[in-house]
Amino acid sequence: MGPPQPSHAPGRQELRAAHPLLRHPYTVITTIVLFAMGVGAALKKSSEWNEVPLGAAKLLLQGRDIYKEMSAYTYPPFTAYVTIPFTVLPPGVARAIWYLICAAALVYTVKKAWHLAGGPKLEPIGTPGAGGPREHWAFLIGHAVALQLALNGVTHLQSDTLIAALLMAGCGSMASGRYLRSATWIGLATAFKATPLLFAPYLLWRRQWLAAAWLVCVAIGANLLPNTVHAPPSGGTWLGAWSRQYLLPMGDSNYTPGDWKNQLVNNQAIAGAVKRWLATTWEAGPREFKVYDRPGKASPTTIRRAFYASCLAVTLPVAIVFLRRRWKKTDVVEEAARGSNVVLAEPDPRANEVKKPTPSPLMIECGIVMLLMLLLSPNSSRAHYCILFLPAFCVARLTVHKPAGWVSILLWLAVIFSTLSIHIRLPGTMATEQVLLWIGVVMFATIFLLAASTIALAKSGPNELLKSTSPEGA
After folding, report:
1. Domain span at residue 289?
2. Is there a domain that residue 326 lies in?
3. pLDDT value of residue 341
């Protein structure tokens, strides 16, 4: 018998000897795609970004009312404020620079979300320490859920990828126990769009009272900055003007959830779906799609009740799991303090070398908060869903390493429904794509991912509960 042969993974030596570009497929593909999209963004004669955020910034500089003169601008005033530096540049140059910011934010979001989900490095493929086939599968499955929605945000030069990057930075700080720093990043994200404010009650649930208050202060303070340029013509603050224009009407008796300055089929939040189902119908031809009010449509009161009931149905299971984790956490900590048989796991010296298959419960919780942000918002366009990367990566890694019944099934349902929302841009597919959006395929993909995340969180063990509350790296 010959000497024993060294054991290597199949193809490992061939991969090591391959050309560097072949060992960095994700980097190569990302560079090509983003470069091609960047050329298109720079060559456009006009874009929504030039007309709305940049247009609002110009009105702000002139002291004109951005909310009365520009009905398409529905964001808090901080978005117009941070866009002011671009007003002095030629439109094409401004658009190209903003595109680079959006693209860089997307790359950061993906890399940070993968890291926060516990994923190891994937490139160069075949090198020591790089993830194996299961990790690549998890990475690709997460992209199947979130990538085409994120690219929608980059295509339209929305601020959503920047918001996603701020949220990832906030979650990263939270994972290391730096809650005030986390609140600063998330507060800035809230200043762009109000929905990340949902992290404030989450921080309260984690008993991080100061961080929750600081998040709110950062969001409000950032939106008071536009007043240093010009005050609204009617007086007061721009934040107050935005609140009166868009928040206060939601308390009126005739308010209908889903009403927003957006095409109704593009609103993939629960509010948009409920209004479409109860108040509208559609007609589809080979090359056209039309949504119109149905005869005898439901009243605003009925739509509001259906909306509240739907929100309750989505949030109640999450609330139950979170409360049970709080009770379990208290019981385990008390037993450990009494010197019972509960033993805290000793730090593993190899923990920095080998990533654990199971994502941190803390990151699963953060992913759940992001999913609820999208579902409970008065308006969530497809571009807003670029934050799906974190929960998608968490559930995908859990599924490929520990296939677990309903978690796996719900993940694949999320993949299917998210894929159905892809806009192919062919005349023959337009009507079908719009019908699927009217049904709410992106919303259902998010609900499936939320259910999978909630089940995964419910299965977290007591030791994980303890470790998820201790400030790592503080």
Report:
1. 252-474
2. yes
3. 42
The verdict on residue 268 lying in a domain is yes
pTM: 0.87
**What does the block give as tokens for 337?**
């303090």
Phi, psi (rounded to 5 degrees) for 20 = -50, -35
* Residue listed under structure tokens 């990832």: 168
Q: Which H/E stretch holds residue 425?
A: none
* Residue 247 counted as domain residue: no
Which residues in 450-461 are b (16+ Cβ under 10 Å) and which e?
bbbbbbbbeebe
The Cα 240–Cα 75 span in angstroms is 12
- The candidate with the shortest Cα–Cα distance to 31, out of 80, 100, 77, is 100
Burial class (CB in 10 A: 0-12, 13-18, 19+), 71: exposed
> What is the domain count for the chain?
1
Quick one: pLDDT at residue 395? 95
- Which of 4-13, 267-276, 355-364 has maximum average pLDDT? 267-276
Q: 212: Cβ–Cβ under 8 A, 6 or more apart, which residues? A: 183, 200, 201, 203, 204
